[in-house]
Amino acid sequence: MKRSIFSIILFCFVLSLSAQEKKPTIMVVPSDVWCNQHGYMTTFDNQGSVQKVPDYKTALQSDADLLLVIGAINTLMADRGFPLKNLESTLKSIEQRMAEDNMTVSKTSGAELAESPLDRLRRTAKADIIMQITWTVNTTGPKKSITYNLQGIDSYTDKQIAGAQGTGDPSFTAEIPVLLQEAVVTHMDNFCFQLQSYFDDLVAKGREVSVDVRVFDTGEMDLETEFNGVELTEIIDEWMNANTVNHIFNKSDASENYIQYEQVRIPLYKTNGATMDAESFVRNLRTYLRQEYQIQSKVMTRGLGRAILVIGEK
Amino acid sequence: MTIVFLSFNLFSQEWHYEINCAGTGVQGTYLVEVTSYGKTVDAAMAQMKKNAVHGVLFKGISGKCSQKPLAGKAEVENENKAFFDKFFSANGDYEKYVIDDQNTNMTVAKVGKREYKVTKVISVKKDMLRKDLEKAGIIKALGF
After folding, report:
1. Is the CB of residue B83 less than 8 Å from the CB of residue B138?
2. Domain residues of chain B, as ranges?
3. pTM (predicted TM-score)
4. A182 and A232 in one domain?
5. Of A29, A258, A57, A23, which is closest to residue A126 (Cα–Cα)?
6. Which of B82, B126, B142 lies closest to A82 in space, CA to CA?
7. What's the distance, CA B85 to chain centroid?
8. Engineered SS bond to A308: which of A67, A183, A300, A304, CB 3.0-4.6 Å?
9. What CATH number has the domain bearing residue A57?
10. Which domain holds residue A255?
11. d(C-alpha A55, C-alpha A34), whole Å
12. Looking at the structure, do residues A195 and A223 belong to the same domain, yes or no?
């Protein structure tokens, strides 16, 4: 009897955990402009072309003002119901994980952990919403002021969803950290209201995601392949039309090898009450294609907001 | 840009005030310059704190460090009329959200035959106000 009661309680607990809402992660990062101006950039060879990317680790280790600003924003956002992922801790945990992965081998065969080039590329500090911060110190004679720009960007739709900009009052005496703290405090409420409007919009009109459909280069099938006289592209369009909230989606580009859907409004919740994200939405498409047309495909994700379905094989 | 609102008082039964940003207050507060109107200086003074809280809640603050109204939309006041009638009553809760430094200078001007306007800088504890109204279910909590 006791055992069955315990089992029921455990089942309910697991069920409640699985139905909990997935929350978007938010992280504050210095903008590329700020990193470039302060010399916190690093270069890498992207197949022959040299690219500059921000070096967050050096920036955090060298710039006390940056730590102050990120700390102040983290505190104020958490206080307003938006807990943030900490950039410094995230970078540390990535390094720790990389070190552990390098040392991990199988006890029996000595095999190392499987890792594709894509896995390595994806192991960077990321969040669903990036709060990108830039500030400049303006000096006019003995007076100093701060121009502050905070942008909230949805990482996967690349849209700016909130922003706060302005120049504070010039001061003869205040130190730069004090002016920075003041700028953060002044602009945070308006920023949070905009962020809240964005979340309210999600609740009302569905979550906005991007969906890409690609084709594996097997030569057996592309998006113009016909099934019962209907092209695969049309089949996917029809499914999107039937499964998006208010039929809202934008087919921004397409060819026989890829389709790009943007502003795809998906329901917030699945039928079982769990949260729907881009991956689960595209998994439904994958299931439909396999069951109705025996098409094999692979689902890849880019966070909560973007998923890629690759047609042809797994 | 000045926000003019009608100030609720015993004489006119209307809200009549102006509220502007007066700089960055200490964390958790708004520093506002409030101009209250009344048939006497005392009447205008008596309305000062109410006007400050009302402005922060429903009108927002204009000026260089402008802020949106805490309540989000003006309809919140009418939708919760009973709550706010009590809140802004003579011994209502509004008073605990205001820091009124008696040493701060105020300006008084006679603007009509029987009307005075009094301007003063005061602090409103906006974080505390927001949290209490969220707890009371009057305004929607921020967050996911």
Report:
1. yes
2. 3-135
3. 0.74
4. no
5. A29
6. B142
7. 14
8. A300
9. 3.40.50
10. 206-311
11. 11
12. no
Tokens of A191: 């920023």
**Cβ pair B68:A79 closer than 8 A:** no
pLDDT digits (tens, 9 = 90+) for A155-210: 767 789 999 998 888 888 888 888 888 888 888 888 998 988 888 887 788 888 89
In a domain, residue A95? The reply is yes
Residue B127's nearest CA partner among B59, B35, B56 is B56
Winning range, highest mean pLDDT, from A180-184, A209-213, B1-5: A209-213
Examine the domain organization and report whether A95 and A131 are in the same domain.
yes
Handedness of CA A175, A176, A178, A182 (dihedral sign): positive
Task: Confirm or reject contact between B128 and chain A (CB < 8 A).
Answer: no
* B144·A24 Cβ contact <8 A: yes
Instruction: Mark whether A228 and A304 lie in a shared domain.
Output: yes
List CB contacts of B1: < 8 A, sequence separation 6 or more. Answer: B62, B63
Whether B5 and B37 have beta carbons less than 8 Å apart is answered as no
Same domain, A215 and A199: no
Domain identity same for A194 and A281: no
Which residue is listed with tokens 């922060």? B56
| Average pLDDT value for residue range B112-118 | 89
Place of tokens 């003995």: A142
So what's the pLDDT on residue B3?
A: 53
In-domain check, residue A5: no
Distances in whole angstroms, Cα of residue B141 to Cα of each of A83, A186, B137: 14, 20, 8
Is residue B9 within 8 A of residue B43, CB to CB? The reply is yes
In a shared domain, residues A193 and A53: yes
Q: Touching check for B66 and chain A: CB below 8 Å? A: yes
Where does a domain end: A203, A236, A251?
A: A203
Same domain as A48, residue A174: yes
The complex's ipTM?
0.75
Q: Does A299 fall in a domain?
A: yes
Chain A contact set for B126 (CB, 8 A) = 189
Does some domain include residue A7? no
Of A82, A182, A190, the CB nearest to B143: A82
Total of domains in chain A: 2
Q: Of A150, A171, A203, which closes a domain?
A: A203
Rounded distance, CA A208 to CA A189, Å? 24
Question: Are B67 and B55 in contact, with CB atoms under 8 Å apart?
Answer: no
Question: How many angstroms separate the Cα of B22 from the Cα of each of A190, B29, B67, B69?
Answer: 17, 12, 12, 16
